[in-house]
Amino acid sequence: MATTPDSTAAAPASPVATLRLASMDAYRGFVMFLMMAEVLHLGRVAENLQALGTPSALWDFLSHHQDHVDWVGCVLHDMIQPSFSFLVGVALPFSIASRLARGQAPVRLWLHALARSVILVMLGVALRSTGAGQTNWTFEDTLSQIGLGYPFLFLLGFATRRTQWVAFAILLVGYWAAFALYPVVPGFDYASVGVSADWLREHGHTGFAAHWQKNSNFAWAGDRVILNWFPRAKPWTYNGGGYSTLSFIPTLATMVFGLLAGSVIRDARPARDKLRWLVIAGILGLASGWLLGVLGICPVVKRIWTPSWVLFSGGWCCLFLAFFYGVIDVAQRGAWSFPLRVIGMNSIAAYCMAHLFDGFIGKNLRTHLGQDFFAFAGKTYEPFVHGAAVLFVLWLILYWMYRRKLFLRI
Does 395 map to a domain? Predict the structure, then answer.
């Protein structure tokens, strides 16, 4: 693979090589906002209204989309991780071109990529270990999954688009085959891996789709080996949510999908052609992922990142990117997105703050403003009002960093 790509590669020499797309920052900011907005506790407000006998269709809808589906399917909140992963791929052609334009040698680029991979993995481990008695050696979170796949993505960043498409297909088909060939054990003791009979009745798979059953599949078997290499209080047997380390493989496919989209946006074709590509890719991704699930060939499950989920969620990512790119960068109607871009330009800082600071800020707001201060809108809506105040403080911190050009980079 050449370090100076040709016209079909991800990082061709062009005048737009070092441009920063506002739409990418806005989309990334939107994704981080969805994660940070968990402090709004929309589900608690919906529960409060139901307890009063006055359920609200609006609050129920908002609550539904601020949670994750139990297994098959997708809500807005499920799009956080695939969007973040997809955008890593979208940004890579711009990053490579910018570094090459600054005269950085290939060895330096590779060292940076490897260092970034290690930092992302270890940062994910550190955030999951906060408050724990010992290091929590698991790798299913967003940062660790991206870190595990990033060196391979970086390698593909110098490849031709044909090679990238071939790699994308191999990742999907190969991972599907690994699950399909892993045996379904008759009479498997699901209770021993945290899967209740009620859960199986409501969410379990039958027939060929049973190869993707929770905590009895290929990736779960891999974790029973991988995660027990690391020190822990007791042997690892299962993840309560069904998440797995090996999901980094199809997550890499999601990032490659983003890499392809980023290459299209960065090339010299007219903007309307770029938008057309994103929309068509989005529709095809949605349709193919949905069809694979409906036919029972591969269920659409985010928690184990099935190949059908790569296609389905990747389709949504393309459509989201088409919206932000079309409105902000093409139509030049981006003033409304400034609050999102403040978040998106410091996405790693936002990610860490959402995991580490929200409780601290929330507690101190009550301490200094009064324990019942946020009940002025009524006890029913207190969790939302208090969360909105926490979210605003988090945004102000990011705005302060933005004004002072303090950006946390990896």
Answer: no
Find tokens 């590509």 and name the residue. 277
Three-class SS of residue 186? coil
Number of H helices, E strands in the chain: 16, 0
Residue 304 belongs to some domain of the structure: yes
Let me know if residue 268 belongs to a domain.
yes
Please say whether the beta carbons of 195 and 214 come within 8 A. Answer: yes
Ramachandran angles phi, psi of 82, nearest 5°: -65, -35
Residues linked to residue 9 through DSSP beta bridges, in sequence order: 160
Phi-psi category of residue 81: left, alpha or beta, with phi > 0 → left and psi -120 to 50 → alpha: alpha
224 phi/psi in degrees, rounded to 5: -65, -20
Q: Which of 230, 222, 255 is nearest to 90 (CA)?
A: 255
DSSP 9: B
In eight-state DSSP terms, residue 192 is G
Which range marks the domain in which residue 229 is found? 22-30+74-332
Whether residue 322 contacts residue 275, with contact meaning beta carbons closer than 8 Å, is answered with: yes
Number of domains in the chain: 1
How many Cα atoms sit within 13 Å of 146 on the Cβ side?
Answer: 23
Cβ–Cβ under 8 Å, residues 303 and 243: yes
Q: How many residues belong to the chain?
A: 410
CA distance 159 to 341: 30
Virtual torsion, Cα 177, 180, 181, 186, nearest 10 deg: 170
Residue 162 placed within a domain: yes
Q: What is the pLDDT of residue 132?
A: 86
Residue 72, strand partner residues = 301
CB 118 within 8 A of CB 147: yes
| Global confidence as pTM | 0.92
Tell me whether residue 295 is exposed, middle or buried, using C-beta atoms within 10 angstroms of its C-beta: 0 to 12, 13 to 18, 19 or more: exposed
Mean pLDDT of successive 10-residue segments in the chain (410 residues)?
Answer: 36 46 96 96 95 94 94 96 98 93 91 96 95 92 97 97 98 98 95 95 93 97 97 94 97 98 95 97 98 96 98 98 97 96 96 92 94 90 96 97 93
Residue 295 structure tokens: 């036919």
Helix extents (H) in 142-196: 142-156, 161-181
Backbone φ and ψ for 9, nearest 5 degrees, come out as -90, 175
Q: What is the per-residue pLDDT for 69?
A: 94
